[in-house]
Amino acid sequence: MATLTYRDALNQALREEMQRDPNVFLMGEEVGVYQGAYKVSRGLLEEFGPQRIVDTPIAELGFAGIGVGAAMGGLRPVIEFMTWNFAVLALDQIVNSAAKMLYMSGGQINMPIVFRGPNGAALQLSSQHSQAWESWLAHIPGLKVVAPATPADAKGLLKSAIRDNNPVIVLEGEMLYNLKGDVPDGEHIVPIGRADLKREGTDVTLVCHSKTLAVALKAAEQLAEQNVSAEVLDLRSLRPLDEAAILESVKKTNRAVVVEEGWPHAGIGAQIVDLIQRDAFDDLDAPVQRITQADVPMPYNKLLERAAKASPEKAVAAARRVLYLD
Amino acid sequence: MTATARTPRQSAPSPQLTELHLKMLRQMLLIRHFEEKAAEAYALGKIGGFCHLYIGQEAVAVGALAALRDDDYVICSYREHGQALIKGISANAVMAELFGKATGCSKGKGGSMHLFDAKRGFMGGHGIVGGHIPLGAGLAFASKYKGTEQVTVCFFGEAAVNIGAFHETLNMASVWKLPVIFLCENNRYGMGTAFERVAAVTDIVEHACSYDMAAELVDGMNVLTVYDATRRAVERARKQSHPTLLEVRTYRYMGHSMSDPLHGVYRTKDEVEEQKARDPISHLAGKLKEDGVIDQAALDALDAEIHAEVEAAVKFADDSPDPEPGELFTDVLVD
Ligand SMILES: Cc1ncc(C[n+]2csc(CCOP(=O)(O)OP(=O)(O)O)c2C)c(N)n1
Ligand SMILES: [Mg+2]
User: Fold this and answer.
1) Domain covering A2-183, topology
2) Of ligand 1's atoms, which has the minimum distance to the CA of residue B57?
């Protein structure tokens, strides 16, 4: 076991997969000479050269599409977006080309491509730079979507994403890159589509992913002090969703709170609530609660931003509501 | 297409011109000192998020805006503190916005990248590279539609030229003859990427040929050249409703944003120092001294006055309240 940052875990995954398969290449803004806007690709240009670590102009729509074309031509592109706020410029290629290619070609052309980069809010970056896109992306049939919360999951899921023969969206987090954690030595793969129980409990299930894992774990600690045993289920994959794991946990605790970074309307939590009410209705002791970002664009002011974001305090309050403690 | 404009040699400038030059000097100094204070405040944690400074590029905003009418529109990228100040937003309101305060020009909700003052025709601060270029043309579309003879100046960096929206917009602006000036501030780098590494055509003015548009290459370290070129473009827009592409060559002294290095793998310290020798403020101050318009004592007094104005803006921002908590939920939609 080595202790790595989330950033270095991603870096290892990229390096190992590029060593393993010469058709894997990385393309994006500042990935080469500048060593990555967030230094995820540090050292890769030196090791693999400019043919495989490709610096692009600021042209998200264009280079995402070039990635799709390269995948059609037999390569395995990893397309880095400096952040997912800029990837919306490329949504046409992700949604209309990558996600549809296999289906509309009647199964002839598959898409072994990865689109990755930081998603969601960091600190005080204001409205256009603080957006969590997972519910948009998970909406699309033909895509897989993962959102690792720990260094080990980041490495294992990125490796799976690169080896997958379908388009995979990897949602990272600017606020996660410095996070340290244990990463198993040697070949470490995390299969796409499996949730992970990050803390066991008996009274309530906190369903989370990506940055909200930290929120849920903190909430669980605070709840423990109030004699409430919270289980923390990290989804890791948003599409496919590990429905069995969610149902199993809810059947055990009979109560659930979904904590996510995105907005409430048509969010990931809405999908999970739909699953739970349909397939675990008889096991539920309370309506499922959701904690999301406030239903507004992200404000710049620090206090307003804090009030807008999901927080452990909000998750604790929601857990107490489903337990009818207040 | 006109070749590089040169500063015309002026013999005994008229009093009006002298007054304009002094105003420009004052404005450039205001931006410079404002940005220096912003850097200090950022280091103290009073400003958060991304903060992109304009130091080195002052002549561009000042020269271009001097050619505008008060009711003309200006729209910018996230590197827009300078343009906001010169378009008439007070240093207090800009600094307060950087501090995220209720008294800021966007009520503390926008921050450094999203300064707005619609009443003054300052249509923002936009954070997605190239995203506001069509908006600039749209403002011009509205002015032409309404027959107001307003001109729009749309400022953007050279890296935005690689975004599709730039090309789509220039084409439409030319086809529809919109009264807009596309003012590209070519400071040679987009973050850590030198333009020539990612652009097939490095003389941005040449793109105008593809869209049958008037264009000029302008020395952005000389405020007077920027002023003259913009005046010609404004005239073209106002009188004939024709768009212009201006490529203004400039240089940023600071890192891309407050969280980025000043130099490093993408440019050398020597290069930065070399560019500083062409400083637009020293250039104009030197000229005015040479012309006998101003002496060192007057220059020092001006400097001190502006320092005081900027200090006052910091104090104003410090003393201002945060937005009310309820502000989180306002301004999502109008009633
Ligand atoms: C579409 C998009 N992609 C990437 C970014 C991240 N980014 C912000 S500024 C910038 C560089 C822009 O350089 P330039 O247009 O030359 O303007 P300058 O910063 O030099 O003023 C990049 C890549 C962004 N904001 N928007
Ligand atoms: Mg630039």
Assistant:
1) Rossmann fold (3.40.50)
2) 21
Range of the domain at B80: 15-313
Find the residue in A nearest to B327 (Cα). A304
Residue position matching structure tokens 């501030």: B185
- Residues B143-153, mean pLDDT to the nearest whole number: 98
- Closest residue by Cα to atom 19, ligand 1, is B190
Amino acid at A243: E
Q: Which ligand is closest to the CA of B78, given by its number?
A: 1
Give the confidence band of B3 by pLDDT, cuts at 50, 70, 90.
Answer: very low
pTM across the whole model: 0.96
ipTM value of the model?
0.96
* Cα of B248 from ligand 2 centre, angstroms: 11
Q: What are phi and psi of A53, to 5 degrees?
A: -120, 100
* CATH 3.40.50.920-classified regions of chain A: 196-322
Distance CA A1, CA B47 (A): 40
- Categorize the per-residue pLDDT at B2 as very low, low, confident or very high, splitting at 50, 70 and 90: very low
Whether residue B97 has pLDDT greater than 70: yes
Angle A61-A66-A71 from CA coordinates, rounded to 5°: 130
Q: Could you give the residue range(s) of every CATH 3.40.50.970 domain in chain A?
A: 2-183
SS3 at position A275: helix
| pLDDT, tens digit (0-9, with 9 covering 90-100), for A269-286 | 999 999 999 999 999 999
Q: Check CB contact of A294 with chain B, cutoff 8 Å.
A: yes
CB B86 within 8 A of CB B62: yes
Looking at the DSSP assignment, which residues form a beta bridge with residue A208? A234
Q: Please tell me the total count of domains within chain B.
A: 1
- CATH code of the region A196-322: 3.40.50.920
